[in-house]
Amino acid sequence: MSYEFEYIVFAVIGYLCGSILFAKVFGYVFTKEDITLKAKDKNPGTFNAYSIGGFWCGTLTIICELAKGMVPVFLCLNFVDVNYNNEVLMALVMLSPIIGHILPIFHGFKGGKGIAVTFGSLLGFLIDLRPALLLAIVFIVFSVIFIIKPDYYKTMITFIVAAIISPFVGYRTAIVITYIAAAIIVCIKLLLSKEEKGDLNVLFVKWNIIGDKEGHKD
Predict the structure, then answer these.
(1) How many CA atoms lie within 13 A of 124 on its CB side?
(2) From 171's CA, which of 9, 25, 38, 199 has a CA 20 to 30 Å away?
(3) How far apart, in whole angstroms, are the C-alpha atoms of residue 96 and residue 114?
(4) Which residues of 102-130 are buried (b: 16+ CB within 10 A; e: fewer)?
(5) Rounded CA gap, 52 and 160, in Å?
(6) Tens digit of pLDDT per residue, the chain (218 long)?
């Protein structure tokens, strides 16, 4: 068996894992119905799993969404890539769960946005958290410093900015390819979605770290 075929096998496994929409699965477990039908944006993601299905539904969903991205990547890294280091094929494996989540074969190719599974794929390096760190930092910046609303725009801008930065932070080529390709895929998914877009709003939050500038009188 050639090493190229081994990469493809893990990519197929990743796609099939990604095609399992756990918000729907646990929605049925905890509410006996498809929770995405009640959601305004119909998205089978963790936010709707929490808000409609409840705490355990949301918690199990986020764990499994991360895992379905992590597991194929981790296994491929340890059983194939450790010997061959093919950057393009490794990127394909990393992207496969994301593509599976967005275009799931088990759900008529109608999936979610791919945010949690992207984190999962980047966390497939497991002990090395650096691949996922960039996306996490950018997401936090646009959540608590430059607050972008609604989430439609925050997600899109986060992925685009992370993709632009990724070639300059010393990541291996497979990770850079994954960042850029994931940004393109997620943005296309968002642009084609029926989600209400609304107006873009950016709020800059200032913290008074030193103390009250006007002072206090005893």
Answers:
(1) 33
(2) 9
(3) 11
(4) bbbeebeeebbbbbbbbbbbbbbbeeeee
(5) 29
(6) 799 999 999 999 999 999 999 999 999 999 999 988 888 888 898 889 999 999 999 999 999 999 999 999 999 999 999 889 999 999 999 999 999 999 999 999 999 999 999 999 999 998 889 999 999 999 999 999 989 988 889 999 999 999 999 999 999 999 999 999 999 999 999 998 877 778 888 888 765 444 444 444 44
